[in-house]
Amino acid sequence: MIITVAPTGGMLTRREHPSVPTQPEDIAADVAACVEVGASAAALHVRTADDLAACDPELYRRVNHLVRARTDVVLNNSSGGGVSVPMRAPLGDGMSEISWPQRLAAVDGGAEIVTLDAITAWASIDGEEVLMNTPPSRARELSARIAAAGARPEWEVFNPAQLTRDVPELLADIDDGRPPIVNICLDIDGVFTNAVRWSPALLSHMVDSLPGSAVFSVSVGGRTPWAALAQAVILGGHIRVGVEDHPFDEDGAPRSNLELVEQAVRLVRALGHRPATVDETRELWYVKRRVR
Amino acid sequence: MIITVAPTGGMLTRREHPSVPTQPEDIAADVAACVEVGASAAALHVRTADDLAACDPELYRRVNHLVRARTDVVLNNSSGGGVSVPMRAPLGDGMSEISWPQRLAAVDGGAEIVTLDAITAWASIDGEEVLMNTPPSRARELSARIAAAGARPEWEVFNPAQLTRDVPELLADIDDGRPPIVNICLDIDGVFTNAVRWSPALLSHMVDSLPGSAVFSVSVGGRTPWAALAQAVILGGHIRVGVEDHPFDEDGAPRSNLELVEQAVRLVRALGHRPATVDETRELWYVKRRVR
Amino acid sequence: MIITVAPTGGMLTRREHPSVPTQPEDIAADVAACVEVGASAAALHVRTADDLAACDPELYRRVNHLVRARTDVVLNNSSGGGVSVPMRAPLGDGMSEISWPQRLAAVDGGAEIVTLDAITAWASIDGEEVLMNTPPSRARELSARIAAAGARPEWEVFNPAQLTRDVPELLADIDDGRPPIVNICLDIDGVFTNAVRWSPALLSHMVDSLPGSAVFSVSVGGRTPWAALAQAVILGGHIRVGVEDHPFDEDGAPRSNLELVEQAVRLVRALGHRPATVDETRELWYVKRRVR
Amino acid sequence: MIITVAPTGGMLTRREHPSVPTQPEDIAADVAACVEVGASAAALHVRTADDLAACDPELYRRVNHLVRARTDVVLNNSSGGGVSVPMRAPLGDGMSEISWPQRLAAVDGGAEIVTLDAITAWASIDGEEVLMNTPPSRARELSARIAAAGARPEWEVFNPAQLTRDVPELLADIDDGRPPIVNICLDIDGVFTNAVRWSPALLSHMVDSLPGSAVFSVSVGGRTPWAALAQAVILGGHIRVGVEDHPFDEDGAPRSNLELVEQAVRLVRALGHRPATVDETRELWYVKRRVR
Asked: InterPro entries from the entry (chains A, B, C, D) (predicted)?
């Protein structure tokens, strides 16, 4: 079972959570500690010096470099970015979207994997609305950019419609015989429209709808992700944990990435499996280490 | 079982289909013929004189009036409109959306029911992309407008995320104790992103996820809608048929609204039920006839 | 879609139902009429002169001969028999079972298909209990007898346990590369223990659990079989109807085999399919006509 | 989450497994150790001095007494017994059943809970077949005996047919307003016919089919029970582990009851829950401690 840590995300600041790593050294240190206890992949976001979301390839290169200096781990850079003001672009009629040029730029950070968010959905944060705006033409452009950069896409799937339409349509463009890497994103419906809430039946259905050869993970927002993550393992999938996804516990107390990965390892072992090594993860995902 | 006819839709023209009714007299005549054989509700779109999509309340009033002059039937006016050029508004960066002011205007056509498309999804037509753009703030605005006009909303649900988020959130605003009217739109994924493709497991799940008191219908795009429509009936739902949804048969031959309603009646009877009368439909949906 | 008619069954008498055919000429006439309107297979039971259940091969041969004199149709002889006194054998402690020697004898009736009831379940009729008693050793014996007689078995499946255990275990013995013929028997739980009641989720699960190549039908007891039969068609299966399975309508009025087959044909057509011919049925089931 | 330990079962001997407790002192010591680490109920079988299955009430009383001398725990005595020769009774035609008088006698052992095996199924052990033979009349008799003894029944459910028929039918007889206690027995299909094999979809369906107020546990045979047990917890159920159910690990090495309960506790905690105390278990099951 691959355990991915998602340490940072595109929203939470250090004011809101004491142990979210936002600066390059902090991210690298946190990832290294998580790999020590069982994580074998890291799903990274970068932030400006004052914690705001960014997709700056220079920042991604710096974080990737610092992580690799400490530990071997599969690196995944988010091209989704975040909803902070510097990442917003005007859309007309007073609306705004997450900047498309910035999303595209994330591809150049040098990671083995770049997220492919083919979703169009409204995020509502602090009373403001920002559109994650990905018409099919943009999804194809991003997909081609990722392939050109020598990275592999990770399909972020927010709802089952993407499994029967967006993923197969785009896969047809870039099919290289390697199994698609899919991350099913559950329980982020407090922020995003078009994003499903976990139920055992729905996750079963989504897994049944995956392209045959897909290797899938599940990430789960909210405070009680363990049941959904356990179901992912039961159904043959991999799991992602971290402060990005579920920063607070049932009582609202902040959790650290290290605690979350340790809990994930206990879950995987309780289900009769063991965490994958980094080499096994590379093999499962058909990615080679990229040196820069 | 309520059989709704959707005779026209927002896309197909008479050049593409010989019997799609687009002009007021034609729509009224077609609806009346369908009511004769078993339909008890009509889900209407209006068109300009040259068949282009419109949401013009004046046109809606005219069509509604002509229909009522011929037959008693529950009237549902679409606020979704269509993707024709006159309904498009620029969105920046070369993109366009379906005009929001025009969508809002549909409310004033005088129907008992107005569709509430709370979805944000890209439509791809003839190589062009248009956004059905409905952030939560717009959905609330439309919902309030429908209530203020004395109509009831029909929730157009494209994917299960809307059932756990959009519908409950908006329902909380307008809760008047009446059961919500939901239409689950399947198999329009050839045009829209975020729109699910039917499978027995998915439709079961969506029906299980409905708000407890909801009265639901199912509409199905494509050429072979009958199995999905039968499942809707099996699961206790109602059905919508018509040239809007499935204009051509398996062999590509055009079907008329009358043929489609007759086939729906045969299906309902084969499953051991009978078509609802107009009065029964009004009771199930808690709508009174609106006279204008 | 194969429509099988099950005209007689092992329980209902002419005192209880005016049009259940129990005598050879009546069965043959009824089957011929049903084939005329769309049935292509007949699942037969035989009865004594006073309507009691029997498995007498001489009687089966006579009925099969009379049917074939009138119409070409795929013939299936039940080895399940019935619960009437002449078919009961003592079991000790005041209990009784359906006679095993009589069940075995049905194989020699000369039909292309013989039912293989590998189930062990108690039938409760008129306050009496009779065991359908089929330990694995008997199931293997029956299966071997059917193969030796040159017939094909139809697996009567009462619950999902049989699909993961009995059917695969026995199939391993007789595997001849031909797809297994399975009939899923639903809603006979009013009589038999270990027999499931239809729900959409359960039937879906059972169909998903079938051996990969199986060709399956569904039969449904009770008064309202149409929804379950429709789901069978939706899931790619075939259907069985007849006085054996659902002799009375919702209001308790008796239905004839002809009416039931006509209703089945309407259902199949309403779902966009057409009834299979006898030749198509033989091809789907890999059975040749047996001439005697 | 209630963790029940099933330390002994009705089949495995000390020759086959080094740490299966079969004698009263050994069972009591094992149960006490398991309660120490998180079990709050014990599902007991008793054995003769040479390890053969028994339902002797005297033996049950002795074991129950010894357990209670060491630890407070909810006691459940099996009325299913086992397949050893001393528990077999002849059934005619060379067949044998598990002795009904012995099964009934288990009720008098003084436990708070007695299993109610309303199933009829063939067990195949070492090439021999024995029938667990429970016609509805016997099930009612056993149910009444359990109620008369002041105990509560635990419904052992082997397949979904029992949930829609046997359980509701018998519940109607004994309804006392207390929630029924159900144990869903999975993956014993290597021994029993009519016993389902776990799949996520099937367990979901069975849980959905439970009588509304039921409190359910899941027990799982075989070597890899953890995924099915995790699903039980996810679906709101309780779990049973022990040498009776899954005596050997994936590699065929024997596991002790203590190890299995410890693993169950880790699973429950990894899923974000904690083991129930004995008092909480009594409350959930509506049972009072019985002192003798």
From this structure: Aldolase_TIM, BKACE
